[in-house]
């Protein structure tokens, strides 16, 4: 019996390294929790294409949108931890949804982080015909002098874009009214039409409307440094509000328990792909910032955002069930 137990232990101990040595020997599935053609979907597909070349196997992208990214997360959490099903994750999935929904069907511990891919800073965009302000400081003064008279739109209630606006209200001591839309396109339409005076959102879709004396003006961004695509727009930190230095992000995760050697292979392929000049150029063009990480760094980003957004959600008493 002792010999049999010893043999079984040896099999278990050597199985994972053996699998990692031959990995991958078949196609990998990348589950993307967003609709095809969106900003993060495009980034995920670019990375996947270049990972395929390095790993020697196709990476098949499957879009599984729904339930605020929770549908895809729940699906991947239940897959085998063999490296053949991985997930493109976002901030909402791990840092926001657990606070605003009581029935999240997964836990962050159901996943093993691999690497970040990009950060998506957000910003405040004003309609200068509605709000008579030239910059962020003037906006703060105007909002304080006109409590409750500014309406700010976002791409959805409970997302990072909404919570950035609420964080600004909490930290800077002014009041404004949130208007949640079912996407950025609707928010832009009403901002251009003057139904709202401000948008708190990701910025790529707004940039064309700010050029050549357009109606819209970006008055501040939430990145740690100025964004390469918006070199003339100051960060909130530059303006004296470092507490508004936040970002959404995208990254790759796998089911918990995926062997470290497999995680290391995937991460190396992600880092190489994200470093390709054409990938970096596209991410920057999309008003985002290329950023890779170790799994441990990724874990710290999730933990910090979970704490930050949890405070905002609790003060709002925001529930979306």
Protein architecture, described:
- By secondary structure, the chain is an alpha/beta fold.
- It has 2 domains: 2-120 and 248-316, Bordetella uptake gene, domain 1 (D-Maltodextrin-Binding Protein, domain 2); 121-244, D-Maltodextrin-Binding Protein, domain 2.
- The protein is 42% helix and 20% strand.
- Strands 1, 2, 3, 4, 5, 6, 7, 8, 9 and 10 form a 10-stranded mixed sheet that branches.
- Strand 1, helix 2 and strand 2 (59-63) form a beta-alpha-beta unit.
- The protein is globular and about 65 Å long.
- The N and C termini lie far apart (54 Å).
What are the key terms here?
321 residues; alpha/beta; D-Maltodextrin-Binding Protein, domain 2; 2 domains; 10 strands; globular
Task: Outline the secondary-structure elements.
Layout: H1 2-22, E1 28-32, H2 39-55, E2 59-63, H3 70-77, E3 85-90, H4 91-100, E4 111-127, H5 136-145, E5 151-154, H6 160-172, E6 177-180, H7 184-193, E7 198-202, E8 216-221, E9 247-255, H8 260-274, H9 277-285, E10 289-290, H10 295-316
Parallel strand pairs: 1-2, 1-3, 5-6, 5-7
Antiparallel strand pairs: 3-9, 4-7, 4-8, 4-9, 4-10
Helix pairs in contact: 2-8, 4-10, 6-10
Summary, kept brief:
This protein has 321 residues and is an alpha/beta fold. It has helices spanning 2-22, 39-55, 70-77, 91-100, 136-145, 160-172, 184-193, 260-274, 277-285, 295-316; strands at 28-32, 59-63, 85-90, 111-127, 151-154, 177-180, 198-202, 216-221, 247-255, 289-290. It folds into 2 domains: 2-120 and 248-316, D-Maltodextrin-Binding Protein, domain 2 (3-Layer(aba) Sandwich); 121-244, D-Maltodextrin-Binding Protein, domain 2 (3-Layer(aba) Sandwich).
């Amino acid at each position: 019996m002792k010999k049999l137990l010893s043999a079984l232990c040896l099999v278990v101990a050597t199985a994972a390294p053996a699998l990692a040595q031959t990995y991958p020997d078949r196609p990998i599935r990348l589950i993307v929790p967003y609709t095809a053609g969106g900003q993060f979907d495009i980034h995920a597909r670019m990375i996947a294409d270049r990972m395929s070349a390095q790993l020697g196997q196709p990476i098949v992208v499957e879009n599984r949108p729904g339930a605020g990214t929770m549908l895809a997360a729940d699906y991947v959490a239940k897959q085998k931890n063999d490296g053949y099903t991985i997930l493109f994750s976002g901030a909402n999935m791990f840092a926001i949804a657990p606070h605003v929904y009581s029935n999240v069907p997964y836990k962050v511990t159901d996943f093993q982080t691999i690497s970040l891919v990009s950060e998506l800073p957000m910003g405040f965009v004003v309609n200068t015909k509605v709000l008579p302000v030239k910059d962020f400081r003037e906006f703060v003064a105007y909002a304080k002098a006109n409590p409750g008279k500014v309406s700010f739109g976002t791409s959805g209630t409970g997302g990072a874009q909404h919570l950035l606006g609420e964080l600004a209200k909490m930290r800077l001591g002014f009041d404004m009214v949130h208007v949640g839309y079912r996407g950025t396109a609707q928010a832009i339409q009403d901002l251009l039409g003057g139904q709202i005076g401000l948008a708190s959102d990701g910025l790529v879709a707004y940039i064309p409307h700010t050029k050549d004396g357009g109606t819209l003006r970006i008055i501040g961004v939430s990145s740690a440094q100025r964004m390469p695509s918006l070199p003339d727009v100051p960060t909130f930190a530059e303006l004296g509000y470092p507490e508004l230095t936040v970002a959404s992000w995208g990254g790759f995760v796998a089911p918990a328990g995926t062997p470290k050697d497999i995680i290391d292979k995937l991460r190396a392929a992600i880092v190489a792909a994200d470093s390709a000049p054409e990938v970096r150029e596209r991410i920057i063009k999309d008003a985002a910032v290329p950023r890779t990480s170790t799994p441990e760094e990724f874990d710290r980003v999730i933990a910090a955002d979970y704490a930050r957004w949890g405070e905002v959600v609790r003060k709002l008493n925001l529930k979306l069930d």
